[in-house]
Design goal:
Layout: H1 4-29, E1 38-39, H2 41-48, H3 52-64, E2 68-71, E3 75-78, H4 83-104, H5 110-129, H6 132-147, H7 153-165, H8 167-176, H9 180-195, H10 199-226
Antiparallel strand pairs: 1-3, 2-3
Domain HTH gntR-type: 14-81
Organism: Microvirga aerilata
Pfam families: FCD (PF07729), GntR (PF00392)
């Protein structure tokens, strides 16, 4: 029995840390906290009415996701979105995701297609309503459902991390580069090709889809840098 209290306390800290991380992630992705913004542990602990321990754990989690950098003598700051980072992330996705789709597509069931259809319907609704927060979440779920039968757990874990890291980039791409309608059309076409057994065509479209998102973001950064 004496061991239960430390374990319970540890679990409580992890739960609080997850809630803090989720809220900070939302603010970063939604642009409330800009690149370079300093995240002060004391101020955050006061705001969330928690100790510094779960705040520190939350910041470490966000650092692992690439949203935050923890620097000596400066503490935690919101990471910058760089062209180099965008290029690396989307090049890795373009390499791995078509491979996963090829392995998974023929094993997708009617239940899977029903879920994909539901995601597309909600995606369309959220785009029309401009609910930015849900775009990245639905995009990530859509891709994960497509790849879930690949039976390549390491590659799937890597891609899961890449999709999470790309969440902020995806929202930026959709909202700032006019990619909403194109994403909607291409996602629907991916499902149609997989359902009709045209897996090679689906993989080719997926690769182009990912590469084009990366290109549009890099183009946006280049144009933005010219005007700043």
């Amino acid at each position: 029995m004496p061991l239960a209290r430390p374990a319970q306390k540890s679990l409580q800290h992890r739960t609080i840390a997850s809630a803090v991380a989720e809220e900070l992630r939302r603010r970063i992705v939604d642009g409330e906290f800009k690149s370079g913004f300093q995240l002060r542990q004391d101020a955050l602990a006061t705001e969330f009415s928690v100790s510094r321990i779960p705040v520190r754990e939350a910041l470490m989690q966000l650092e692992a996701e690439g949203l935050v950098k923890i620097l000596p003598h400066r503490g935690a700051i919101v990471s910058e979105l760089s062209m180099e980072e965008v290029q690396e992330l989307f090049e890795l996705r373009a390499l791995l995701e078509p491979r996963l789709l090829k392995a998974s597509a023929r094993h997708l069931t009617e239940v899977d297609y029903d879920r994909l259809s539901q995601i597309l319907q909600e995606y369309s609704s959220e785009l029309r309503a401009k609910h930015v927060r849900r775009w990245g979440e639905l995009n990530t779920e859509f891709h994960k459902v497509l790849y879930q039968h690949a039976r390549q757990p390491r590659a799937q874990a890597i891609v899961g991390g890449l999709l999470q890291e790309c969440d902020r980039h995806t929202r930026l791409q959709l909202s700032l580069t006019g990619g909403m309608e194109r994403a909607e059309v291409e996602h629907a076409e991916l499902v149609r090709l997989c359902r009709s057994g045209k897996v090679s065509a689906a993989c080719a479209l997926l690769k182009t889809h990912i590469e084009d998102v990366g290109k549009s973001l890099r183009n946006y950064f280049e144009e933005h840098n010219k005007t700043t």
